[in-house]
Structure formats: structure tokens, C-alpha cells
Amino acid sequence: MSEETNKQGSLFQQVLMQMDIAAQHLDLDPIFLEKLRHPKRSLIVSIPILMDDGHLEVFTGYRIQYDMTRGPAKGGIRYHPQVNLDEMIALAALMTWKCALVNIPFSGAKGGVRCNASNMSASELERITRRFISEIILVIGPQMDITAPDMYTNEKVMAWIMDTYSMHVGYSVPEIVTGKPISIGGTQGRKEATGLGLVFTILEAARYLKINVNRAKVAVQGFGNVGACAAKSLDDHGARIVAVSDSKGGIYNEKGLAIKKLIQYKERTRGPLMEFEDGQPISNEELLSLPCDILIPAAIGSQITGENAPKVQAKVVAEGANAPVTMEGHKILMEKGVFIIPDILGSAGGVTVSYFEWLQGIQKYFWTLAQVNSKLEEIMSSSFRQVMRVCMAKKVDTRTAALMIGLERVVEAAKLRGLYP
Ligand code: NAD
Q1: Is the dihedral of CA 193, 196, 198, 204 positive or negative?
Q2: Each residue of 373-397: pLDDT tens digit?
Q3: Atom nearest to 148 CA in ligand 1
């Protein structure tokens, strides 16, 4: 936990504080608001794995279903050394507001295993995945809780999830997981969905702020699935991607990096970005304070804090990652007049196309890429405009407005269903 997280309380406490701020502007039933301050179900499991060298390691895994009012729980699975219960609960709560904001019939979940996936062999990762899914199988299901990719989990991991669940029940259940390969029931466009969805909201913000995306300078922290897809799409729109980074550091080129070559380099070598010949090495901290129009945090949480927010020079911070800005960081960015596309809006493209994938799986009827992307654009753009309408009507910032929309929808559904028993 960082010093600032300690000062401000845990990530979940920060999520609750944001929820309280949003609730102040709404007339919500206090009974259902109180219910939503607690995760519905939290499962912690042990995952004993024989590592390749023959020794046993026991990993800890989590699955949190924050709420199930508006439909099955939905959320990614993260493999990272910092995964912990508080973070999982906070991210599951954010998924709840995110699904409601883009108005898809899912509720929020999150899962993860505390491990260092980048140091593991493919067979170790497969054993972890299969044992983790077996341990949480009692609480997941295509109508109950649907898993998806997140940090350090990819299509391959989703395929193992689909297979493990299917083997347990005795028949194929592709709808248990989204973000799986197309050949086993995945959808067109899921891999790019979060990055592309973020870009749809950036285009809306640019129109609103009168920023010309063509030639706008963009810096991207985290060159994984979300960051690289957003960078590629913005590059296609003529933006200049001046800096990108990964966990080891980044590269900077004021004239704009050759993004497609960089993606090929990363796929080919899996080596550090800093060794790509086209730019000069910079640290992650330096990237966040570069002179640019649009800054995209697309790595881990709590990256823009009370300490470094004063140095941010971007006009727009577009949150591709979950919770990349702390509350203190948010306050400072607001005072500086930075326009924030909040995480529950900016990163909602992934779960939106996951919903399309789930629907296609249930109907056994598959869409074209053009159908997926046009429906994604419609949802992302209209969600952005709804957020802006609330911002103006209630004189609140974008994060509060987005949360107000999500929270109001969940509370309304909870109230209609009533408190059981
Ligand atoms: P990924 O594993 O594909 O990529 C993560 C990237 O972040 C990698 O380049 C990694 O090197 C980098 N990184 C890790 N630690 C870092 C650090 N300390 N500083 C800088 N870079 C660091 O993960 P992803 O799927 O692209 O997810 C990125 C973020 O987006 C996460 O916060 C995730 O929760 C969020 N998100 C992902 C999706 C999705 O569909 N994949 C959907 C919504 C939100």
C-alpha cells in the first residue's frame, strides 16, 4: 500500500467516499444505499500448485461479487503480486457502477490471484488457472458470474477457464467467460474493445473541449492490451503518441512514436520498451508529467496522486485503468482544470463488448466486427453525453456525474426488487 493510500484509507474506502459524494447529489433510499456499501459475496481460496521445479507453492485467489441486482455479476480476473482482498472489493464495486452506467444487464464482480505471472511458465499459469476456477466454481456460472481478462490474463487464460468450467459440468459453456478466442465462441473486437471504447470517449471529449485529435500529443502509461489498443486507434486518427511505458519504464519521442512498429517489436521480442530504437528512455513518473494534450493511464491503480498531480500538464486525463487517480490526485487535477474521463466511463468498452460476446454465445449467433464496433461506439458516445448532461445540470465533475448515473440505476433496481426476505 502506498503512503498516500495509507493516508487516505484503503482503495475500497476511497471508492465508498466517492460513492458518498455522488449520493449527496441524489435523493436515494438510505436503506438500499447502505446495502450497497457492502460486497454481497467474497470468496478467498488457496491454490496449491506444483511448480515446474517440483516445489509446492500455495497462492491466494479471490472472487468478489459486489452486487447482483441488475443481472449476473461480471468482472475480470487479474494475476498480479499486489492482488489483495481490499483491492478486489474496490474493483468489484467499480464494476457495479460501470455496468450500470453503460446500462448493460450485469452487476459487478472482480477476481484475481496474488502471483507474479510474468515470471511463470505457461504450464504453471495453466495449472493456477484451472485450480483457481475449480475452487471458485461453486459461485460462478453463465447466469451467475461471468469472468473476463484483466491485468496479466489474456485470451489463452480465458480458453483454460472455459475448458475447466466445461469439463466440470460435462458440456461446453462458452458463456462462462468473455475475452476468449474467436474459435471457441469469442467475439470479434473484444481484444481491442477497452482501448477502442476509451478512444470513443476521448473523441467526444475532444469535440466538447475543441481539441483537434489530429496531431494532438498523447502519452500512454501501460502498453498492454488497453494502452496499446488505445494508442493504435489514436494513431489511426492522426494523433501523435509521444510516449508509452510498461512496468519497466517508457520511451519518449516528441515527434511521435511509430506505434505500429512498436506493437510489432513488443510482440516479437517481449523485451522492454525502453530498448526500442525510436525514442529516448523515460521513467513512468516522467511520463505522467510530460507536456501533452491527452494522458492515458492504462496500467495499475493509484498512479496519479497528491504528490505528482501538480506536475500533470495534460488537458485531458483519460482513465483506461481502474482507479488510476487517487482522491487527492483527482482534487488537484480538478483545481488545475484538467478534464477527466473517469474509469467507470473510459474503460467500460471491455465489459460492453463482453456483454455482446455473452449475448452471442447464448444466442449462438455471431456478429461482424463492424456490428460490434458500431454498437460499442453508440453506447460509449451516448454514455459520455449522459455524463456531460448530469455534469452541467448538477454542477458536478465528470467522476461524480458518472457515479451518480450508475449508483442511481443500481439503487432503483434494488428498491424495486426489495430487501430479501
Ligand atoms: P495488461 O496486462 O495487458 O497490460 C498492463 C500493462 O501495464 C503492461 O504493459 C505492464 O507492463 C504495465 N504495467 C504494469 N505495472 C506497471 C507500472 N507500475 N507502471 C507502468 N506500467 C505498468 O493489462 P490490461 O488488460 O491492458 O489492463 C490495464 C488496466 O486496464 C488495468 O487497470 C485493468 O484493470 C484495466 N482494464 C482492463 C480491461 C480489459 O478489457 N483488459 C477492461 C477495463 C479495465
Answers
A1: negative
A2: 999 999 999 999 999 999 999 999 9
A3: 40
Q: Name the phi and psi angles at 158, rounded to 5.
A: -65, -35
Cα pseudo-dihedral 147, 119, 10, 100, rounded to 10: -20
Question: What predicted TM-score, i.e. pTM, was given to this entire model?
Answer: 0.96
- Tell me how far the alpha carbon of residue 300 lies from the centroid of ligand 1, in angstroms: 6
Determine the Cα angle at 98 with ends 410 and 180, to 5°.
120
pLDDT of residue 272: 84
Given the residues 110, 180, 217, 266, select the one marked as catalytic.
110
- What does the H/E/C string look like for 79-108? ECCCCCHHHHHHHHHHHHHHHHHCCCCCEE
Q: Which atom of ligand 1 is nearest to the CA of 324?
A: 32
67 confidence band (pLDDT: 50, 70, 90) = very high
Q: Check if 110 is active-site.
A: yes
417 burial (CB, 10 Å; 0-12 / 13-18 / 19+) is: exposed
Q: Say how many C-beta atoms besides its own lie within 10 A of residue 86's C-beta.
A: 15
How far apart CA 373 and CA 383 sit, in angstroms, is 15
- Does the structure show a pLDDT above 60 at 4? no
Summarised one tens digit per residue, pLDDT across range 279-301 is 999 999 999 999 999 999 999 99
Residue 222 carries which side chain, given as an amino acid letter?
G
Nearest in space to 43 (alpha carbons), one of 147, 122, 120: 147
Range list of H helices, 210-304:
225-236, 259-269, 284-288
